[in-house]
Amino acid sequence: MYRWSLIAVLTVVSLGAPSSTANEAAGLSDVGLTFMASGKTEKAKEVFFKALAHDVDYPIALHELGKIFETEGKNAIAADFLAKASVEFAKGEKSNPAWSGKRADATRRLKVLNPYAAQYVGAMEEYAADLGKIAKKSPDSLTAEEALRRVDVLMLPSVLPADKLPKIDRPASADPKTKRVVGRDGIREKTAKTEIAPEVERTLKAAGWTKITGVWKKVAENKYEVTDGKLECAKLNGAVQVFYHKGSTGTVRAYVRADNKESEWESDWDWKWSATGYGLVLKGQNAKIYSPSQFGSTYSPYLDHEVALPEAQNKHLMLVQIQEKRLEITLNTKREKLAEYPIAKEGVFTIIIEGTATIEDPKAAGQ
User: Fold this and answer.
1) What are the pLDDT digits (tens) for 137-174?
2) Residues 5, 23: Cα–Cα separation, whole Å
3) Of 257, 322, 255, 250, which Cα lies nearest the Cα of 282?
4) Of the N and C termini of the chain, which has fewer Cβ atoms inside 10 Å?
5) What is the edge-to-edge ordering of all strands in the sheet holding 186-192?
6) Distance, C-alpha 205 to centroid of its chain
7) Residues 226 and 337 in one domain
8) Rounded distance, CA 164 to CA 321, Å?
9) Positive or negative, the Cα torsion across 338, 344, 346, 351?
């Protein structure tokens, strides 16, 4: 007699297996079920293993193999397969209502084979819920990374259905990333990294931002020196606000409905006609206003006009508001642009810092 583990079996099955879709796994599982109905258990077992070679998580094959091993008296491996099948059925039962009954059957069999399995799953559910509460109470990268590390170490996705896992976004990597930059001096490589203290991250998230990258140094309350930074949140209507401090050498952009597509290419040209979003761009003593311009049947952000910043003023308010098709752009106390165009309802709210700049009170509001 010998004892297998689910991981060992699936490793053997998947070695050398060609990459394929769940369609092959489903088709092979149907063949296996036909063999089972004819009493050809060994043939069925072979076909179910082939199904798992195409899709290691396919629940029908997992469930049927668990039942076969149960009848053979191999309770340990049967429990492994049934536990995995129960989790995978739970993931797909919304789109496959019939899987609810199969999930219940797998769970019932598992309880018989291993009466402690249900207690273990229950304990993991409670632990996952606690991790979610902690991450929500302290929404910073360090807390999120530690909580997710525990999720990974305990392999909770293999134990619990998706709706029982803690809802924690994986933070942006702190590892430097290299991108190609097109500028007036030609093409060069630029390395960007993310360094942000938990206190600063919590403050920025409380101000409406969900994605934060770059190097952030707190200068005073809600005032930061930022190098190659970016704030982002998924909103279509509302407002973006930030103060730009005099003496900054970098560029600060405040946009609504901005294109947030990632690219390995960037541009650091200071004087370009178009932008990735609607709003304001400040650098030195110059401000640019980008509003909708029609190109064929669509509208895109295009340079509307430029203004010089007041020399005597130490900081400048950048405020961009959007409500459906009504766009309002304000610099300091003056409304620079009021436009109503049927611009596309897509993109994000964002503040982008290129180089190093001092900013204050960056906020995003709306929905």
Assistant:
1) 888 877 888 888 888 777 787 678 778 889 888 776 55
2) 26
3) 250
4) N
5) 186-192, 177-183, 265-267
6) 15
7) yes
8) 38
9) negative
